[in-house]
Amino acid sequence: MARTGRRAGSSGSREAILAAARDRFAQEGYDGATVRGIAAAAGVDPALVRHYFGGKEQLFVAVLELPIDPAKIVPQLLAPGIDGLGERLAHFFLETWDRDDMPFVALLRSVTTNDRAAAMLREFISREVLGQIASSLKLPEPQLHAALAGSQLVGVALMRYVIRLEPIASMDRDELAKMIAPVIQRHLSPS
């Protein structure tokens, strides 16, 4: 009698999904790519994409090879409220970027030279990170304030990790976080 169901061993489906996702995200951007389209390109059912990755956000994180999902961390950073959020964001991002398993510098370099990579990351950050922050702000133009706060973090990242401008590049992480936190906070809760 012939066996039915999933074959024993590795089917290669997970790798096929990741390859199709890389291609779709590159061609269509984060917003344009769909789980259904990625599944079709990989030759699998969309349920298998959700089985392996949960959803489009988690699949994008896997494609970027990020060890953490910032979209899951942001609610934890927001939970205590807006007061002190600048410091929590500064500490979190600097700590994350300093991790050895974080391909952040390579990612940052690729987005500065590749329009498709920049578009993918921009759409992801706009929706999953800055969008969550903006929705918690009680300000006119919350998206602008969240984007300005994000620009401070990315600017520091460029100076510290890519350009390696001293003394920022070798500065103690906690000291740097304390120095940039008030600027970030100013964008999140202007007086």
Set out the fold topology.
Blueprint: H1 13-32, H2 35-42, H3 46-53, H4 56-64, H5 70-78, H6 85-97, H7 104-113, H8 115-136, H9 142-162, H10 173-188
Considering the chains and any ligands shown, give keywords for the structure:
single chain; 191 residues; mainly alpha; Arc Repressor Mutant, subunit A; Tetracycline Repressor, domain 2; 2 domains; 10 helices; 71% helix; globular; disordered N terminus
| Low-pLDDT segments | 2-9
What CATH architecture of the largest domain do you see? Answer: Orthogonal Bundle
Order of helices and strands: HHHHHHHHHH
- In DSSP terms (H or I, runs of 4 or more residues), the helix count works out at 10
Tell the overall outline: globular
Beta content: under 5%
Using only C-alpha atoms, the radius of gyration works out to 19 Å
Structure explained in plain terms:
With 191 residues, the protein is mainly α. It has 2 domains: 52 residues, Orthogonal Bundle (Arc Repressor Mutant, subunit A), CATH 1.10.10.60; 119 residues, Tetracycline Repressor, domain 2, CATH 1.10.357. Helices cover 71% and strands 0% of the residues. The protein has 10 helices and no strands. Helix 1 crosses helix 4, helix 5 packs parallel to helix 8 and helix 6 packs parallel to helix 9. The longest helix is centred in the middle third of the chain and has 22 residues. The chain is globular, with a radius of gyration of 19 Å. The chain starts with 12 loop residues before the first helix and ends with a helix. The N terminus is likely disordered.
